[in-house]
Design a protein that fits this description.
mainly alpha; 17 helices
């Protein structure tokens, strides 16, 4: 079960990074390979796969570190098996120094996943966008590809469909009745009651406000993370090799640490003062949650941005500088449009991850700052299964809508950004 949970929750890393890489792939190279007699599988292995290596390596590193740092799945579904993250929590209850030592061990093990990235090519296969005669794909090949895609989509959608169904079931659970019998809207009314009735009380009444807080916290953390990742990635391009390694390790450390470790570190650091020593304590305020999400998800932003930069054509920036544009103008008008797809892919992953983050949130949230993940957990604990499922559905729908809106805004802002040719 632990492996299944990790596979289901982390596959979006590979999906988003690979999709972003395919958007920047020169389709003319695949067409040329097919025209020269290569089979579809050989064209993929010889042309597409090398071009996707930076994106796949970034996704693999993030997936490995996230799995290593996962606590909830091993704790709930581990059936007594001891993982390093569970051992850290257990050790912290009895021996804090042992817990600290295990945390360092976990960080080192996770950072080892970055070593293979040093041996990968930094640029994918590229070529001109000239038209080539397209080799026609057989009907059987298209049918097989469609069937595989449909099966994967069904497997991914099944858990989400179950939550959606439970949000309409009167009892919030599946009973002996037919699958689509006894469907009501009561759970959505309960989840939204706090918005329309200030006198509403109970765990369900605060769900709508918690969903709004989750989206706000995630949006703030994502905006800051996108800007910081662009700055760090740009700094790494001009920094000495030793400093590049230090910047990379510092940026990836939060993703390697369990959410509980990051939350406790933030509580310890900001229990008496604010950022950079100014202002009052951040612990217990709404500020500390976006800060935690930013710290945890910065590696997602950075890996997506660097993968996009590695695959971006360098001659565009050189031509911009040759034509008289300065560094800032080149970055905004020549480099940024070319990497927009990769940056947005990282931003979307970070936003979705932050909107549902639980492990750090449960330690950092206060009574009036709790996000949806904590509120839904409390609703489940209070046997409010239907309203909790309704709130989860609302959060998923709102996050998906925000993702579509972000993609639309980027398409309007960068109409000349390269897109996958058909």
């Amino acid at each position: 079960p632990v492996l299944l949970v990790h596979a289901f929750t982390l596959y979006p890393l590979f999906f988003a990074f690979t999709t972003s890489g395919l958007d920047r792939l020169d389709r003319g190279l695949l067409d040329a390979a097919r025209t020269l007699g290569a089979t579809p599988s050989r064209a993929f292995a010889g042309v597409a796969l090398p071009a996707l290596l930076p994106s796949l390596a970034a996704a693999a590193a993030l997936t490995f570190m996230s799995s290593m740092a996962s606590f909830t799945a091993p704790y709930v579904f581990g059936a007594g098996s001891r993982t390093l993250t569970v051992a850290i929590v257990v050790a912290r209850q009895d021996d804090a120094p042992d817990a600290a030592a295990l945390s360092i061990l976990l960080l080192l093990a996770s950072l080892l996943s970055l070593a293979p990235l040093a041996f990968l090519p930094t640029r994918g296969v590229r070529g001109s966008k000239g038209a080539a005669a397209v080799a026609e794909e057989s009907l059987a090949s298209r049918a097989a590809r469609g069937a595989v895609g449909a099966l994967v989509a069904a497997a991914v959608a099944a858990p989400l469909a179950a939550i959606l169904l439970l949000s309409f079931k009167r009892r919030g659970r599946l009973g002996d009745e037919a699958l689509f019998d006894d469907l009501v809207l009561d759970h959505y009314r309960a989840a939204l009651s706090g918005l329309f009735d200030p006198r509403a009380s109970g765990a369900a009444a605060g769900l709508a406000a918690a969903v709004g807080r989750s989206l706000l916290y995630a949006a703030l953390a994502t905006a800051v993370g996108t800007v910081v990742a662009l700055l760090v990635a740009a700094a790494k391009r001009v920094a000495p090799r030793t400093l590049r390694g230090l910047l990379d390790a510092a940026a990836m450390l939060p993703f390697a640490a369990p959410g509980t470790v990051v939350a406790l570190a933030l509580l310890e650091e900001f229990s008496t003062h604010g950022l950079l020593g100014f202002g009052g304590a951040l612990a217990g305020t709404a500020t500390i949650l976006p800060l935690a999400y930013f710290v945890r998800n910065l590696p997602i932003h950075l890996r997506a941005t660097e993968a996009a930069l590695d695959e971006a054509p360098k001659d565009v920036a050189d031509a911009s500088r040759t034509l008289g544009r300065g560094p800032v103008g080149t970055a905004l008008h020549a480099v940024l449009p070319g990497i927009a797809a990769g940056v947005v892919a990282g931003a979307l992953l970070a936003f979705v991850t932050a909107s549902g983050e639980f492990v750090a949130s449960v330690l950092l949230a206060g009574v009036f700052t709790k996000p949806a993940s904590v509120a839904v957990y409390e609703a489940f604990g209070g046997a409010s299964f239907g309203p909790a499922a309704a709130a989860g559905t609302l959060l998923s729908a709102a996050a998906a809508l925000a993702a579509l809106l972000l993609r639309g805004l980027v398409a309007l802002a960068f109409p000349s950004a390269p897109r996958r040719s058909r």
